## 1
Amino acid sequence: AQKITQTQPGMFVQEKEAVTLDCTYDTSDPSYGLFWYKQPSSGEMIFLIYQGSYDQQNATEGRYSLNFQKARKSANLVISASQLGDSAMYFCAMILAGQGAQKLVFGQGTRLTINP
Amino acid sequence: DAGVTQSPTHLIKTRGQQVTLRCSPKSGHDTVSWYQQALGQGPQFIFQYYEEEERQRGNFPDRFSGHQFPNYSSELNVNALLLGDSALYLCASSAFGTGAYNEQFFGPGTRLTVL
């Protein structure tokens, strides 16, 4: 069965510092995708970044990068030069590629607070 | 281009009542998934609809049912509400395809409170 584990319930970071949010996953399927979503207090899930299991390079999207270590089954999110607007809940999620109905399996989330 | 919309934004019901939540997918999307997010938890998959049929279901009782209309919009119905059904209900839409994954776009959610 698929499982996502986020071990950091909360993180506090000073503005402009880099922050790493941890995510480990468990699946026996060789083909999968890993996502990070940001959820502000408004509730909407905002897509940040995606990494496919066969991608050779780590994904990057602006200030976001994904540190993908396949052998360790980890997919940590790195936010460079944090901003006050980055304060939110962050969720790591996994999807099994190619399945007929693709459901996302989410972790418990990490609440990130950026201090001025 | 309108994104995923959900209605209502907030809803208060009492135990035993029934509720219907609505979702309109992003333009060009034909697949709708529903998730339940309890306070302090990650979203949990309820079910997914494509071509007006339920394609996969998560670990939710039959009190949770859904429907998809020919215009791809969807409804989530919950009967015999329990206090534990209080949650944020998220709708996500995607375009069914043969790629490695179908990116899901989320709506703002409906916050249901059961008293």
## 2
Amino acid sequence: EIVLTQSPGTLSLSPGERATLSCRASQSVSSNYLAWYQQKPGQAPRLVIYGVSTRATGIPDKFSGSGSGTDFTLTINRLEPEDSAVYYCQQYGGSPWTFGQGTKVEIK
Amino acid sequence: EVQLVQSGAEVKKPGESLKISCKGSGYSFTNHWIGWVRQMPGKGLEWMGIIYPSDSDTRYSPSFQGQVTISADMSITTAYLQWSSLRASDTAVYYCTARTGTYISWGQGALVTVSS
């Protein structure tokens, strides 16, 4: 089983700043099957990035994904209050598909 | 456009059985993995398992093996998640999810409440 470890647990930043979220896998993620989700309280997860770096439909270009192998990053530029959420990474290549534990992004 | 439409919220008593559904459309249902994710109240996302409809190859997370049954009916492009005997600890939102290439789609979620 591929274990995904996200860091930091919580990120507290001011509007306009950049957030850098990390997702580290215990072994290589196959075929770039790595996704990022945004989840706000009471809502379903929203796909932000899939295939490591492809933005999902409707996601602004302030969100970007990068990485390969075992190290992946979600970057959120120009933070706004509405970016406040928990962000999860997921690998969906090798079974079992797994999730990271989440990073909470707070806007000061 | 890939769409996954789940059945509605359920309220059940401990010990009862339940089968919830997820209907896929807009893609070749038969040839793509589809599965289930659990989110307990206030907790993170947990991957439960997946099924490949064309040959019913099913993979479970060790945490859910033996606790639930995942199945699919190709004729109506629908996947299922089933419990034979619910527990209060099964109270959660359940999402179906399908992988098409590197894209991954989600259903809207179904709240299952188990309470006496």
